[in-house]
Amino acid sequence: MKRALTMGLIASFWLGAAALLHGLHGYTPEPSITTAAFLASDTAEPPQADDPAWQSVQLPHIWSEHPRLGRLQYGWYRLAVDPVGGRTADGPVGAVLLWNISMNARAFLNGVWLGDGGPMGDPVARNQFRPLLFKIREESTAGGDELLILLRGMPPGEGFMGPVVTGPTAELESLYRLRHVLKVTFLHLGAMLIAAIALPMAVLGIWRPHDSVYGWFATFGILFAAHTAVITIRDVGFSEPLWEWLFAASVNTSLVALLVFVHRFLNIQRPRLEKALWMLWAVSATGVAAVAWVQPDAVYFWSRRVWITGSVLMSVYPALLILMVYWRRLGDSGFVLMLAGTLMALLGVRDALAMNQWWVDPMQGFWTHYTVPFTFLVFSYILLQRFDEALQESESLNRELESRVRDKQQEIESQHAELRLVEEQRTLAGERERILRDMHDGLGSTLVSTLSRLESEGRGQSHVSDSLRSVLNDLRLVLFSLEPGDRTLRAELAMFRERLTAQADDAGLAFGWTIEQVPDELSLPKRGDLQLMRIIQEAFANTVKHARARRFDVRLTGQADGSLQVVLSDDGIGFDACSAASKGFGLASMRARARRLGATLNVAEAQPGTRIHLYLPARINP
């Protein structure tokens, strides 16, 4: 039921539009002259009034309905008119209005030239469907009222003369303006409207190249606007065959662009058909151009009868596509689109018949140009609606994506915070382990040794004091290494030197300290400075306790390859390295710390004293 009602509404719309256009284009003002004498001629020279070739005809007079006229170019019409318009003190006030002609006309009243619509030769002024108004001249009112009109038909054999109206100038000027608005101004406004919509659509198509529907819609609109401009130009400025080719090419190009647009609009993929149509267009355009060049008189047949007619009939195809697609999903926009699309296709077929003067009155002109702006507005509205929906969907997706990115960013930040916390806990655990190990190796072993001596040997207060002082120095060294700040190795060693100098003074030792070619920015990773200072501290303690030395020297030398060499020496009694290790003079502890540094440590006897070589390769420096 719904589809039957829809079909009824569409048919009613078609009939209503056809009736309206027929009424507008078929109107003839009254009173008008409908009887005339006609003479076919090959020239634009006025014929003799007594020429026997004159014959009576009825207006409107359509040449193609009289095959005997053949490819006639000029025809003369003689009309008897009543006294025109009357007179005033300033002269006559009447006028002659040619309501509908093809292609151009020139008027004489009582043998006096009244005017014409432009050049009568090639290229002829194109006044097809335009009204022509000629005002009465003073000298033309003498000697009776005989109106002589020369008509130039174009294409040859397809001219026509509509009703002729005479009367007061003011009345005929009003009729002329109304007719001109309907036949010319309205088409210009429609073309301007289409171009005004097509240009922003073209920009939209450039902005969205992946969605070609906007580009093809703009292409169709611009081509059809250009076609409308072509058919409404009066003085073309070039030859008739060239104009005819341009007229046909503008029609056919816009129709092929329309078909491609409808494919994109309906999401139909038929690339082979589109390619075939463009190839057919190229072949047809080339062929008609060749005909216009070689045999100009034949161009009208091939351009109008063949090329344009075939393309217009082909335009029924996109209308059927629209009808089939939207018939399945009826809606407000679909219903209006079916009305617009089918009406444009039907009127296109009707105009093709009128252009060829087949079964349709050619004097009513072309109707398609009055419906294309409406169809264009409908498509524009739907395309803008689609664009708005796509834009809203894109904005919604962007918001959703931003929300997901925000959530993911918060999740990553939370994970990073957890990782930082784990890393901090791992670092703290490592620091605790190192401090405990250092205190165990240094403070713990010293305290245990001191306690053991007190319990087993009963040593005196001096020994206890020495042991506690050693513990205090060890504790200070550990605390010194934990002080905050980003210090270089030279800065660490400079402060350590002050502490060691004070200890050497207390022990009565001469103390030597030399640093050579050590870069100011050199630093050791992972508390390597503490390990180095513990090794030096351990060697110094052994010298004080066991070597009976008078001097202790520290020499640090930077090498060209970035490595560091440390030499610790004293002038004491010396010892056997193997037996020293077994007797617990701290050599094992020093070697363990050297391994943590990734360094090598060697102990050798000197003459006199002991010398310790520590080699730190460049790879341990950051």
Biggest sheet overview: 6 strands, antiparallel
Class from secondary-structure proportions: alpha+beta
Mean pLDDT across every amino acid position: 81
What is the strand tally? 19
Proportion of residues in β-strands: 15-25%
- Principal-axis shape equals rod-shaped
Protein topology:
Layout: H1 2-26, E1 35-41, E2 55-58, E3 61-62, E4 74-80, E5 87-88, E6 91-92, E7 94-98, E8 101-102, E9 104-109, E10 112-116, E11 132-135, E12 146-152, E13 160-161, E14 164-168, H2 169-207, H3 213-232, H4 240-265, H5 271-294, H6 299-314, H7 316-328, H8 332-355, H9 368-456, H10 461-481, H11 489-507, E15 510-516, H12 528-547, E16 551-558, E17 564-570, H13 577-582, H14 587-597, E18 600-605, E19 610-616
Parallel strand pairs: 15-16
Antiparallel strand pairs: 1-2, 1-4, 3-13, 4-12, 5-6, 7-11, 7-14, 8-13, 9-10, 9-12, 16-17, 17-19, 18-19
Helix pairs in contact: 1-8, 2-3, 2-9, 3-4, 4-5, 4-6, 4-7, 5-6, 6-8, 7-8, 8-9, 9-10, 10-12, 11-12, 12-14
